[in-house]
């Protein structure tokens, strides 16, 4: 398997507004954003396209303009675990650029996606020229490390209900829509994917979701999951 090399490139609609919504570029003025826009390339991917392949050498950083991607690691039998899901304004591919090692995970488009790609040399130059971008990047990497710490604690110390609750809360943070204390997750991943994330079986995920529904924490309507009170659910299970 190789990373998809045939995305379509679209140069007709060049503007910088998509970069204004990227938190790591938030402090930059328009002239700087224009320079960044010229450095990179916009690419379109279809659902299921592999953008980055685990263990390949990294040559670029990607910023999501639209769509969603999943960050996954796969074992020798092809089983995968989702580490995170990213949407518009978020970036990935920085790890191998910063430490010079191979890609730490694969990245796959979960839906039609448009990405902005910056080559390694240009990205490193950008960090040197704009320390505020480097500081924002460190802030985001710290947030990701905190999430990974929570995940390690959950997998090592929590029982099945805590581990499944943690996965639901992670999905809420990644793809949920927050409204007045409630969170709606429109497209809940497959229960097998959630089981791999929680280190448990698909049957246990199903059992726990139904337990949380009975307890009044969740509602499930087809593929749409609602957490009735995010803070309360978090307090009870994390
Ligand atoms: P890189 O290793 O270059 O390619 C895969 C990318 O996936 C990696 O950079 C990060 O951007 C992202 N990634 C890897 N592990 C995690 C994680 N635990 N949480 C969020 N993103 C990750």
Structural notes for this entry:
The chain has 238 residues and is α+β, with helices and mostly antiparallel strands. It folds into 2 domains: 8-144, Jelly Rolls, CATH 2.60.120.10; 158-237, Arc Repressor Mutant, subunit A. It has 9 helices and 13 strands. The strands form 3 sheets. Strands 1-2-9-4-7 form a 5-stranded antiparallel beta sheet. A 4-stranded antiparallel beta sheet has the order 3-8-5-6. α6 packs across α8. The radius of gyration is 19 Å and the shape is globular. It starts with 7 loop residues before the first strand and ends with a helix. Residues 8-13 have low confidence and may be disordered. The site of adenosine-3',5'-cyclic-monophosphate (CMP) has 16 residues, from β6, α3 and α5.
Can you count the beta strands? Answer: 13
Unique ligands: adenosine-3',5'-cyclic-monophosphate
Give the overall average pLDDT.
Answer: 93
Strand content: 15-25%
- Helix segment tally: 9
CATH architecture of the largest domain: Sandwich
| Straight-line N-to-C gap | 38 Å
CATH superfamily of the largest domain: Jelly Rolls
List keywords for this structure.
binds adenosine-3',5'-cyclic-monophosphate; 9 helices; alpha+beta; 2 domains; five-stranded antiparallel sheet; 43% helix; four-stranded antiparallel sheet; Arc Repressor Mutant, subunit A; Jelly Rolls; 238 residues
Topology:
Layout: E1 8-9, H1 17-20, H2 30-39, E2 41-45, E3 50-52, E4 60-66, E5 69-74, E6 80-86, E7 91-92, H3 94-99, E8 106-109, E9 113-119, H4 120-129, H5 131-157, H6 160-175, E10 177-179, E11 182-185, H7 191-198, H8 202-214, E12 218-221, E13 224-227, H9 230-237
Antiparallel strand pairs: 1-2, 2-9, 3-8, 4-7, 4-9, 5-6, 5-8, 10-11, 11-13, 12-13
Helix pairs in contact: 4-5, 5-6, 6-7, 6-8, 6-9, 7-8
Bound molecules: adenosine-3',5'-cyclic-monophosphate (CMP).
Residues 52, 58, 71, 83-84, 92-96, 103-105, 107, 144, 148 line the site of adenosine-3',5'-cyclic-monophosphate (CMP).
């Amino acid at each position: 398997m190789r990373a998809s090399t045939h995305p379509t490139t679209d140069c007709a609609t060049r503007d910088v507004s998509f970069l204004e919504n990227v938190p790591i570029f938030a402090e930059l003025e328009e002239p700087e954003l224009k320079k960044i826009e010229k450095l990179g390339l916009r690419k379109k991917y279809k659902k299921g396209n592999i953008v980055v392949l685990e263990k390949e050498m990294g040559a670029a950083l990607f910023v999501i303009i639209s769509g969603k991607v999943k960050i996954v690691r796969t074992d020798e039998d092809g089983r995968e675990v989702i580490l995170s899901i990213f949407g518009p304004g978020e970036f990935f591919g920085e790890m191998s650029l910063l430490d010079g090692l191979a890609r730490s995970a694969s990245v796959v488009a979960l839906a039609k996606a448009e990405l902005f790609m910056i080559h390694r040399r240009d990205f490193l130059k950008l960090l040197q020229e704009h320390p505020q971008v480097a500081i924002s990047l460190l802030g985001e990497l710290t947030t990701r490390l905190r999430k990974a710490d929570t995940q390690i604690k959950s997998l090592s110390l929590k029982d099945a209900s805590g581990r499944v609750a943690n996965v639901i809360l992670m999905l809420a943070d990644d793809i949920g829509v927050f409204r007045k204390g409630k969170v709606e997750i429109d497209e809940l991943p497959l229960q097998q994917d959630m089981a791999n994330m929680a280190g448990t079986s698909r049957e246990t995920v199903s059992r726990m979701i139904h337990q949380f529904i009975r307890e009044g924490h969740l509602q499930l309507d087809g593929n749409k999951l609602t957490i009735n009170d995010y803070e309360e659910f978090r307090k009870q299970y994390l």
